[in-house]
Design goal:
Shape: globular
Strand order of the largest sheet: 3-2-1-5-4
Bound molecules: aspartic acid
Order of helices and strands: HHEEHEHHEEEEHHHEEEE
Strand content: 15-25%
Low-confidence stretches: none
Radius of gyration: 17 Å
Helix content: 25-40%
Distance between the termini: 16 Å
Length: 274
């Protein structure tokens, strides 16, 4: 199987994992976590095992979850949790906090989350990519994973997980774990998950801005998303994309560069784009 086929299949599996939860009347939050877990397990995606490497050749994961009732959890600089998205979820559900940086392994284990040595996340492919980027033979690749969902109970949720940007400085934190930048959900309005140059998404307050434009400005989701990508991302000479689902079940994919790989359903067919 070639790599592109593997990516199509990974996207398809992730979509189905989320959809299975929703069809069983599960919550949007469970659905987005299930979809993101599949992508974290798949070394073809920049999250979990196979994530992009820092300049030191290590992996530092960022992840966030948020449900439309306004409750979120996030982790940054996570080095050992096998599923960073589950760690973000545990921080939301089981701690009094919203964002933790590299929480101690014993706490992570107590929350029932599998641990691994940092080397376990490092794949030969990513090592090669890092060497090529450092030798200036290749430009940096992006590719955070994320999911958005609306459940039968009318709630929305978003989850996002990433290794960040190839060759990033050790300790660099992107938009993914910052609620309102790379991840956001608000019942009655929208759930959104972003990918691209995190610095632009952070400075543009992108995910929250989408929700605010819709909630307070009455803007259409697709128009608002396109305006934000133009004004906050392209205007900063960055690039990026977002996926969103509204409280009425309309989903949109908006991007300004070929950074978006996605899966969605139309009728009885699951579509994937890469
Ligand atoms: N947004 C991620 C970050 O800046 C990277 C990506 O989406 O490719 O960490």
């Amino acid at each position: 199987m070639d790599k592109l086929q593997g990516i199509h299949q990974g996207l398809n599996r992730a979509y189905q994992a989320g959809e299975t939860v929703l069809r069983g009347q599960g919550s949007a939050l469970d659905a987005v976590c299930a979809a993101v877990e599949v992508l974290e397990d798949d070394p073809l995606f920049n999250a979990g095992r196979g994530a992009a490497l820092t300049a030191d050749g290590t992996v530092e994961h960022d992840a966030a979850v948020m449900s439309g009732d306004g409750r979120g959890g996030a982790v940054t600089l996570s080095r050992h949790a096998q599923h960073p998205v589950d760690l973000a979820r545990a921080i939301r559900d089981r701690s009094p906090h919203v964002l933790l940086a590299d929480p101690p392994d014993d706490i992570v284990a107590d929350w029932g989350i599998g641990l691994a040595d940092n080397d376990w996340f490092v794949t030969p492919d990513q090592r090669e990519h890092l060497a090529a980027v450092q030798a200036r033979l290749r430009s940096r690749q992006h590719g955070t994973v994320g999911a958005v969902a609306l459940d039968i109970h009318g709630h929305v949720a978003a989850a996002t997980s990433t290794g960040g940007i190839e060759n990033q400085a050790v300790g660099r934190i992107g938009d993914t774990p910052i609620l309102g930048a790379g991840t956001w959900a608000r019942d009655g309005v929208v759930a959104v998950s972003c990918t691209g140059v995190g610095e632009a998404f952070l400075q543009g307050g992108v995910a929250h801005q989408l929700s605010a434009r819709m909630e307070y400005g009455g803007q259409d989701v697709a128009e608002a998303a396109q305006a934000i990508i133009d004004n906050e991302i392209v205007a900063r000479e960055a690039f990026g994309a977002l996926i969103a689902v509204t409280a009425k079940g309309r989903s949109v994919l908006v991007w300004d560069a070929p950074v978006l790989q996605a899966a969605w359903r139309e009728g009885d067919k699951i579509h994937t784009r890469i």
